[in-house]
Amino acid sequence: MAQVTVKINGYAYTVGCENGQEQHLLDMAREVENRIDSIKALGGPTGEGRLLVLAALLMADELHDTGIELATLRSLAAEQGPSAEPVKPDVKQAKRLSRLARKAEDIAASIEQP
């Protein structure tokens, strides 16, 4: 398992990922950083935990707007399994989104609550 250090809002986080997924993880961290920057531009209270929660909610809202429910994404990913044959593009995308959701949940769980 590879480890990548991503920087989000000036903080470094070391995150594990599958070998070969390092660039993908860095790209996803950049997406989170972009959302945090847009939240900061709006002003208001911006504690680290609050920024991460708002960024996660924005991303969840974007997923919702696509009409794909998270439970559906997870069930599609589970059906494919690790040794599945190549999948249709929409299922492949669902697996990627599900993996992103799990990573976001792991990161959120690792943040200390006040």
The value of Rg in angstroms is 15 Å
Strand order of the largest sheet: 1-2
Number of domains: 1
Show unreliable segments.
none
| Number of helical elements | 4
Query: CA-to-CA gap between the ends?
Result: 31 Å
Biggest beta sheet attributes: 2 strands, antiparallel
What's the total number of strands? 2
Beta-strand proportion: 5-15%
**Overall average pLDDT:** 77
**Class inferred from helices and paired strands:** alpha+beta
String of helices and strands: EEHHHH
Estimate the helix proportion, in percent.
55-70%
Q: Which of globular, elongated, flat, extended, rod-shaped describes the shape?
A: globular
Question: Would you kindly provide a written description of the structure presented here, covering whatever features stand out?
Answer:
The protein is an alpha+beta fold. It has one domain. The chain is built from four helices and two strands, in the order ββαααα. The protein has a two-stranded antiparallel sheet. Helix 1 (22-42) crosses helix 2. It starts with a strand and ends with a helix. The mean pLDDT is 77.
